[in-house]
């Protein structure tokens, strides 16, 4: 069998073209298109059942698509070999268990698999002790995995994904069960990886704040297609157009959606002067954008013209 290889120089680190996935009679992925540049952090958002895990697992080589093409590091996952696999880091939603292993012991053991794939520019594996510190498991390093809490277990999952110092890291809902400190530490690890190690990262999350904070670009998957593709600010601008203004006059509360907030506020003060209190101006957040888009797809099967500008690949 000839392996489908594309020059990495000409291609993106991840390239997905007209990807389709049918389970029985249901088309979960209808026509998914996107690409990811080296070092980019991309967040894939979408409602439950949209096909995020399916997309990621096709890219990891765990599922075979029903149609279309996908390339990771220039290679089609369904035809890839061990040396390709060794360049990936994978954090799945539920990882297989190793209850009797101790944390440090397991990472050390898994790390050995990556040793033959070490290169002059990318040393493999990462040091297990350093990694344990990075994910904040120092106190549990010599504990059995069966004794870890849910959040600690998830931190270990992330460490398992990172031990091979991957070129591309796939994270499927990585911070589920993290406490706020663990979440913040994890974000720090991801930022460091993408900046210092040039790791390309594709993550799924239901935490819009996390997507906004972590990613360079956001994709929204709905109805089997990528319906939005841009930075959090770009998406918000596209939807925004309006800002929400709240204020009080003589103890009465008011609220209005306006296209030009500064002008509106100026007029408000011209009319009411110092009687205006508790003034708040709020631009559309990523959450507003997300809810609006997903609702439109659900109701009409498509986005209205204004939102649809982001449909498909926009690079
Ligand atoms: N092996 C399978 N056989 C049949 N249907 C499947 C299979 N795997 C997934 N599905 C269905 O495909 C759809 C997409 O599932 P997937 O897990 O990819 O969605 P998701 O976006 O990751 O969802 P969530 O946010 O809930 O994790 C769902 O309706 C799911 O029930």
From TrEMBL:
It comes from the Bacteria. SUPFAM superfamilies: P-loop containing nucleoside triphosphate hydrolases. GO terms for molecular function: ATP binding; ATP hydrolysis activity. Transmembrane segments: none annotated. The keyword ATP-binding applies. Residues 14-248 form the ABC transporter domain. Signal peptide: none annotated. InterPro entries: AAA+_ATPase, ABC_transporter-like_ATP-bd, ABC_transporter-like_CS, ABC_transporter_ATP-binding, P-loop_NTPase. The keyword Transport applies. Keywords: ATP-binding, Nucleotide-binding, Transport. PROSITE patterns: ABC_TRANSPORTER_1, ABC_TRANSPORTER_2. This is ABC-2 type transport system ATP-binding protein. It comes from Gracilibacillus orientalis. The lineage of its organism: Bacteria, Bacillati, Bacillota, Bacilli, Bacillales.
